[in-house]
């Protein structure tokens, strides 16, 4: 399980970042990095990519408009990477522009995936989560009552 978070520098000129060793060990050497929600990026092992996409689209058998748009948003932005010996990857402008990376980024472990956030944006998100955690769990509980 991938958990915790790590702050590291981002070389804006070279668009290069080092993935924390703990996360590299859990993810392996073949990664997919794509655009994700709330303005961050997602990192997933190549082996687990299909499972994540099944979760996102609800394993639907039909290629409805929301599924097509989700595919476009995520799959259309996905790139395959293999970190170098120091765990570094060079990200395309397309991804770094989406995430609006400054000079520091935060890697957040979320079980089966890692999100990469601009540090300032992550700090804002943490404040939101801290202030709303109780409401969020109540909303989830209400949604599961309907199932």
Description:
With 147 residues, this protein is α+β, with helices and mostly antiparallel strands. It has one domain (2-119): Chemotaxis protein chec. It is built from 5 helices and 8 strands; from the N terminus they run ββαββααββαββα. Strands 5-3-4-8-7-1-2-6 form an 8-stranded antiparallel sheet. The protein is globular. The model has no long low-confidence stretch (mean pLDDT 93).
Q: Kindly give the count of domains.
A: 1
Structural class: alpha+beta
> How many beta-strand elements?
8
Order of helices and strands: EEHEEHHEEHEEH
Please write the CATH class name: Alpha Beta
Poorly predicted regions are: none
How far apart are the termini? 27 Å
* H/I helix tally: 5
The assigned CATH architecture is: 3-Layer(aba) Sandwich
The percent range for helix content is 40-55%
CATH topology name, in short, is: Chemotaxis protein chec
| Strand adjacency order, main sheet | 5-3-4-8-7-1-2-6
Mean pLDDT: 93
- Large-scale geometry: globular
Largest sheet: 8 strands, antiparallel
Quick description:
Helix content is 41%, strand content 29%.
List its salient traits.
single chain; about 150 residues; alpha+beta; Chemotaxis protein chec; eight-stranded antiparallel sheet
Topology, please?
Blueprint: E1 2-11, E2 16-18, H1 21-27, E3 31-35, E4 41-45, H2 49-57, H3 65-74, E5 79-81, E6 88-90, H4 93-99, E7 104-111, E8 114-118, H5 119-145
Antiparallel strand pairs: 1-2, 1-7, 2-6, 3-4, 3-5, 4-8, 7-8
